[in-house]
Q: What sequence folds into this?
C-alpha cells in the first residue's frame, strides 16, 4: 500500500493541492500561482506549472508521457483523506453496531424481537435520504459541507447512546445515525469522482472502499476487545466510538478542500475573461470569476432532475435495479450455509468478517480492473460472482471449502460492484447533477435489494432454503448476460482512456 | 519544510484532545472495573462438595466481583445462605439426572458461542458451537437429552430480524436435528408453511417435552408438546411462550404477553392446570422475561434483571397456591436457576 502511505504523508498539504481532472479551480486567493488559463483543463496542473524546469530537453518524450500518465492514474490525496474519514467513521459505527444486540438484550433487557425491529429501521432510513444528500450537494455546490452535516449527525448519536435508556430512544438514535449515513454518502462519492481523472476513477473508488472496509473490520474487533477487558464496558465502546467519529469529522472539516465541482466545470467551460463576463485586463490572472458563482446566470447547466431520463443513465439505473432485485441479503446466504452444520455453524457469527476481508483485499484490484477493461463490464461481472456464491451456498456440502468459497465470492461481488457503480455513474453523469445521480443509483440499488430480501423471505418460507437460493441463482444466470448486453455500450470510451498496465504499476511502486 | 498550516495544527489539537479524553475514560473505566472486582465484598462461600451432596439450587452468580458469571450452588433449605462456587462460567445452565448443560459466550477478539455438557465432577463431556447468543437450556430428568435454544445472530449485516435455533442433543453430543425439521401439527393438521420457529424446551421425560412454536404468517405463538421418538410437535394451546412443566407434571407455567408498551412486549407468568385446562395469570410478575423453574409443585422461580444495576440479576419466587401472594427475593445476584433434588 505504498500509494496510500505516500499520499497520507502528503495529505497535510491537501488543501493546497489541486486534484487532477480539470474540474477543480485554484482558490480565488491563489492568483499568483496560476499563469495560464489552460491549466485547470489539463490532467496534471502541477506538472504543467513546473514542467519546463523539471523535464529537461534531454529526457525522451515517451518517458515524460509515461510519467504524466502514471501521475494522472495515481489516486488523489483528497480520495485518501476521504477514505481515512470513512475508516474512522466506520470504526465508530461498526463498533456500536457489533455490540448493540448484546447491549440491548443484556444491559437494557430488551428482547431480540425488538432488536429485529431496530435493525429493520436501520436499513430503511438510510436509503431514501441519499437522494436528498445528493441533491443538496449539487444544489449548493458544497458537497463537503453536506457530507460534514451527515457525519456530524452520526457523531451526535454516539453521545446520545450514553444516555439512552429504552427502546424508543435507541431506535431514534439508530435512525438518526442512518439518516446521517444516507446524507453523507452521495456528496462524498461525488467528491471522490471530482478528485479523480477518467483514468483512475475506478481505482479511486476502490481505494476509498478499501479504507472504508478496514474501518468496518476494525470496529467490531475493537468493540469485542473492550468487552473482553471490561465485561460491561458498553459505555466505554460508545466513548471510543464517539472519539473516532470526532477525529473523522475533524479530518473532513480541516483537511478536505471545499470542492466546488459545478463552479469548476463552469470555469473549465469559460476559459477567457470575456467568457466569464469579466472586463478585459492585461496582466490579470485568469482564475477570477464573477462574484455570483455558481448562480443561475453563471452556471451553464443548472441543476435538473432530467438526468434520470438521459438514455445512458436510465439504462444503467434500470439494469442496476434489476440486478439488485436478484441480490438477497447476505444474512440469508449465511443462514443457508449455517443450516448445513459443520464448519459453517461453528463460524457463523464471524461470516460477515470473512466477506469483509475479501471485499477489503479486492476493492483496489477490482477498481483498477474496472478502469482498464470497463466499469460496466466489471459491475455486471460482479454479479456473476454473486451467482457463484449462491451456487456454493445452494449445492456445496458441509465442507469448509464450500463455505469459504461462498464468502470469498460474496466479498468479490461487493468489491466489483459497490465502488464501481459509483464510479460508473460519476463518470456518466454531468457534473451539475453528479451527486444526485450517484445518490439516485445507490437508492435504486438499496431499495431494490430491500424488496428482494423481503420477497426472498417469502420464497424461503414457502419452498425452503436451498430451493429458494438456487432459484435466485437461476434467475441471475439469465439476468447477467442480459445486463451485459444492456450495458455494452457504456464502456465505449474506457479503452481510449485506459492506462497501459505497466505504467499503472509504476504509479503503485 | 513548510510551516504546518493552521488547519493541521487544529487537527493535531483535536486528535490530542480526543486521544487524551478517550484514553482517560478507558483507563478510568478499566480501573473502576478492577476496583469493583477487587473491592466487591466476597460473597460468603462454603464447601462445594457439601452443598452438592444434598438437595440444592445451581445458578449463575451475578454478584459483582471475581466470581461474576461462575456457576454457584446453595442448599435448597437455605437459599439466602453461603454459596459454593465452581470454576465453570455459563450464561445459562441447567442440571438434571447428573448432567449439567452450560451455554456460554466465548469472549475474545472474535466472540463465539458454545454449549458444553459437564458430568457430576464438573468435567467436560462434550461441546458444540451455537449460532448466536444463548437463550434457553433444559435437561431431561434422566440427564440423557439436552434441549437448547440460541438466537441466530450474526451482525447488523444479517438483515433477518428475529430467529432462533432450537435443537435436542443426546449426552454424547449427537443432535436430533433442528426442531424446524420435525413434523409440526397445528390442531392435528400438518403445518406446511416453513416460517416456523421453535424455542424454550421443557422435558417431562426422555420422550415427551413442551416447547414454544411461532409462525409469523399465522401471527401466532403456541405451546406445543413434542414427541422425541416420532419427531412430532403438536399444538396444545395458542398463546404463551417458554413453557416449564411442574415436578408432578400436572401444571405448565409460561410467560404470556399482557400488553405492548413502547413497541415492547410486556409479559407476565401464567400457570395452566393440564387436567382442567384452566389458566391462571399472575399480574404481579409483570415485566418478566425468563423461562420458569419450579422450586416445588406450588412455587415458581424466575430471574429478573435489576433496574439500576446492569448485569446484576436476582432470582424471585412466587407462591402460586396462595391467592394474592407477592413475589419474594429468593437468591440475590443470581440467574438461570436449576433445582436439583
A:
Amino acid at each position: 500500500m505504498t500509494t496510500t502511505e505516500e499520499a497520507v504523508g502528503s495529505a497535510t498539504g491537501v488543501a493546497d493541492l489541486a486534484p487532477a481532472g480539470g474540474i477543480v479551480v485554484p482558490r480565488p486567493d491563489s492568483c499568483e500561482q496560476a499563469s495560464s488559463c489552460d491549466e485547470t483543463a489539463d490532467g496534471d496542473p502541477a506538472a504543467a506549472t513546473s514542467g519546463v524546469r523539471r523535464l529537461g530537453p534531454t529526457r525522451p518524450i515517451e518517458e515524460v508521457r509515461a510519467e504524466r500518465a502514471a501521475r494522472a492514474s495515481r489516486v488523489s490525496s483528497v480520495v485518501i483523506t476521504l477514505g481515512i474519514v470513512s475508516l474512522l467513521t466506520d470504526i465508530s459505527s461498526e463498533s456500536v453496531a457489533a455490540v448493540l444486540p448484546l447491549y440491548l438484550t443484556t444491559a437494557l433487557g430488551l428482547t431480540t424481537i425488538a432488536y429485529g425491529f431496530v435493525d429493520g429501521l436501520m436499513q430503511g432510513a438510510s436509503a431514501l435520504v441519499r437522494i436528498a444528500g445528493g441533491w443538496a450537494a449539487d444544489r449548493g455546490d458544497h458537497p463537503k459541507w453536506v457530507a460534514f452535516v451527515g457525519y456530524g449527525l452520526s457523531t451526535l448519536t454516539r453521545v446520545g447512546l450514553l444516555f439512552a435508556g429504552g427502546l424508543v430512544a435507541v431506535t431514534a438514535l439508530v435512525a438518526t445515525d442512518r439518516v446521517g449515513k444516507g446524507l453523507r454518502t452521495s456528496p462524498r462519492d461525488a467528491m471522490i469522482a471530482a478528485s479523480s481523472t477518467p483514468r483512475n476513477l475506478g481505482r479511486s473508488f476502490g481505494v476509498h472502499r478499501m479504507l472504508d472496509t478496514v474501518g468496518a473490520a476494525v470496529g467490531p474487533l475493537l468493540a469485542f476487545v473492550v468487552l473482553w477487558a471490561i465485561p460491561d464496558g458498553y459505555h466505554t465502546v460508545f466513548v471510543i466510538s464517539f472519539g473516532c467519529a470526532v477525529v473523522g469529522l475533524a479530518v473532513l472539516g480541516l483537511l478536505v478542500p471545499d470542492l466546488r465541482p459545478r463552479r469548476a466545470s463552469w470555469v473549465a467551460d469559460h476559459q477567457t475573461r470575456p467568457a466569464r463576463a469579466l472586463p478585459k485586463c492585461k496582466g490579470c490572472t485568469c482564475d477570477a470569476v464573477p462574484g455570483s458563482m455558481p448562480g443561475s446566470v453563471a452556471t451553464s447547466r443548472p441543476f435538473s432532475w432530467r438526468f434520470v431520463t438521459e438514455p445512458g443513465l436510465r439504462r444503467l439505473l434500470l439494469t442496476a435495479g434489476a440486478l439488485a432485485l436478484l441480490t438477497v441479503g447476505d444474512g440469508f446466504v449465511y443462514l443457508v450455509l449455517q443450516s448445513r452444520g459443520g464448519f459453517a455453524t461453528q463460524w457463523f457469527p464471524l461470516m460477515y468478517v470473512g466477506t469483509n476481508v475479501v471485499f477489503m483485499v479486492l476493492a483496489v484490484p477490482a477498481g483498477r480492473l474496472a478502469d482498464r477493461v470497463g466499469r460496466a463490464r466489471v459491475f455486471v461481472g460482479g454479479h456473476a460472482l454473486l451467482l457463484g456464491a449462491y451456487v456454493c451456498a445452494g449445492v456445496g456440502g458441509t465442507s469448509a471449502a464450500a463455505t469459504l468459497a461462498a464468502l470469498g465470492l460474496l466479498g468479490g461481488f461487493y468489491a466489483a460492484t459497490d465502488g464501481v457503480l459509483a464510479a460508473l455513474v460519476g463518470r456518466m453523469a454531468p457534473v451539475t447533477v453528479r451527486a444526485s445521480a450517484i445518490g439516485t443509483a445507490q437508492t435504486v440499488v438499496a431499495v431494490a435489494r430491500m424488496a428482494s430480501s423481503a420477497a426472498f423471505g417469502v420464497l424461503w418460507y414457502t419452498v425452503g432454503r436451498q430451493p429458494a437460493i438456487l432459484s435466485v441463482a437461476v434467475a441471475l444466470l439469465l439476468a447477467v448476460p442480459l445486463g451485459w448486453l444492456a450495458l455494452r455500450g457504456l464502456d465505449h470510451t474506457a479503452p481510449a482512456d485506459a492506462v497501459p498496465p505497466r505504467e499503472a504499476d509504476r504509479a503503485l511502486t | 519544510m513548510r510551516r504546518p498550516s493552521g488547519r493541521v495544527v487544529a487537527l493535531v489539537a483535536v486528535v490530542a484532545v480526543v486521544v487524551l479524553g478517550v484514553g482517560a475514560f478507558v483507563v478510568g473505566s478499566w480501573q473502576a472495573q478492577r476496583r469493583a472486582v477487587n473491592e466487591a465484598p466476597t460473597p460468603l462461600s462454603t464447601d462445594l462438595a457439601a452443598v452438592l451432596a444434598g438437595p440444592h439450587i445451581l445458578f449463575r452468580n451475578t454478584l459483582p466481583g471475581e466470581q461474576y458469571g461462575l456457576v454457584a450452588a446453595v442448599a435448597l433449605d437455605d437459599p439466602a445462605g453461603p454459596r459454593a462456587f465452581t470454576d465453570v462460567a455459563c450464561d445459562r445452565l441447567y442440571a438434571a439426572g447428573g448432567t449439567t448443560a452450560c451455554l456460554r459466550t466465548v469472549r475474545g477478539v472474535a466472540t463465539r458461542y458454545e454449549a458444553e455438557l459437564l458430568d457430576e465432577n464438573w468435567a467436560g463431556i462434550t461441546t458444540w458451537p451455537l449460532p448466536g447468543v444463548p437463550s434457553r437450556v433444559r435437561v431431561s430428568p434422566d440427564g440423557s437429552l439436552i434441549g437448547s435454544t440460541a438466537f441466530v445472530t450474526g451482525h447488523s449485516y444479517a438483515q433477518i430480524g428475529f430467529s432462533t435455533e432450537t435443537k435436542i442433543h443426546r449426552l454424547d453430543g449427537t443432535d436430533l436435528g433442528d426442531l424446524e425439521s420435525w413434523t409440526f401439527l397445528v390442531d392435528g393438521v400438518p403445518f406446511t408453511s416453513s416460517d416456523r420457529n421453535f424455542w424454550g424446551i421443557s422435558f417431562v421425560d426422555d420422550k415427551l417435552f413442551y416447547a414454544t412454536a411461532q409462525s409469523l404468517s399465522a401471527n401466532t405463538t403456541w405451546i406445543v408438546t413434542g414427541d422425541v421418538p416420532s419427531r412430532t410437535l403438536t399444538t396444545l394451546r395458542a398463546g404463551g411462550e417458554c413453557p416449564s412443566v411442574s415436578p408432578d407434571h400436572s401444571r405448565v407455567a409460561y410467560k404470556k404477553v399482557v400488553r405492548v408498551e413502547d413497541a415492547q412486549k410486556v409479559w407476565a407468568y401464567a400457570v395452566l392446570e393440564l387436567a382442567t385446562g384452566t389458566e391462571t395469570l399472575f399480574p404481579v410478575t409483570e415485566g418478566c422475561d425468563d423461562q420458569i423453574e419450579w422450586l416445588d409443585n406450588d412455587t415458581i422461580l424466575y430471574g429478573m434483571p435489576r433496574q439500576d444495576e446492569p448485569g446484576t440479576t436476582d432470582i424471585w419466587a412466587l407462591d402460586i397456591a396462595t391467592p394474592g401472594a407477592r413475589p419474594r427475593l429468593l437468591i440475590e445476584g443470581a440467574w438461570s436457576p436449576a433445582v436439583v433434588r
Confidence is low (pLDDT under 50) at residues 1-56, 293-300, 493-509 of chain A.
